[in-house]
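Below is how a single chain appears once it has passed through the pipeline. First comes the sequence as given, then the structure the pipeline wrote out for it. We keep one example in the README because the format questions we get most often are answered faster by looking than by reading.
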Amino acid sequence: MAATSAPLGQRAEVMRIEGVDKVFNGDVVALKGLNLTVNSGDFISLLGPSGCGKSTALRLIADLIHPTRGRITWAGGQKAGDLGVVFQEPTLMPWATVAQNVWLPFRLRGKTYNSVKDEIIEALRLVGLDKFQNAYPRELSGGMKMRVSIARAMVTKPRLILMDEPFAALDEITRFRLNNDLLALKEKIGCTVIFVTHSVFESVFLSDRIVVMAARPGRVIRELTVDAPYPRDEVFRTSSDYAAYCRQASDALHEAMEGVAA
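Resulting structure:
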């Protein structure tokens, strides 16, 4: 069932990051003073050069690591268990079928395959792979493997999905197609997405908020709003509005990189 997000500025808060520092090995400052509010229905891209703490921020939100200072709070007491995560590599189990891979989040919650089979097949249908449910990862293309990973992340219908450069290793045509499909999936399940990318073009096409980060230390230097309606398609991708937003994001990214060089 399609879900339409409220306009920016009218969305309920999901989680908040306040004054978060993350220091590794006592002196490596990965993040400094990170502040970010995430609202229901947001599509937020974290855009910045390597080493600016984008992936570290995702790991903090996922509760895989903990802040050195500051705090992360969840509206209504929501915990990080209500998350789906998609990594840069599909990280599929090679010995398991496509359907068994998508079953994994339910399996970790103690649910049998048969009790959630309908949800698994529906998730695969949404990513166009229901006819491949009995295939093994070795039989799939790179784009198909990533679709399985996305189905696995969304099968439990989480409120928030974290995506760490999931399309970076794919060719441009496949990447564009999956960008289109991701927006359609987000609309269908009504989730919130935080998406890490190095690509200005990808961030503008997907996002309604772009958080630009700089490194040494990792920090937010600017937030941009992409005030273009969804659904987005090739008409938007080739429009003057898209080009203008890309210029803004590119300027902010250059500012972030100059900060690194300084």
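The first helix runs from residue 54 to 61.

See the next section for the split statistics.
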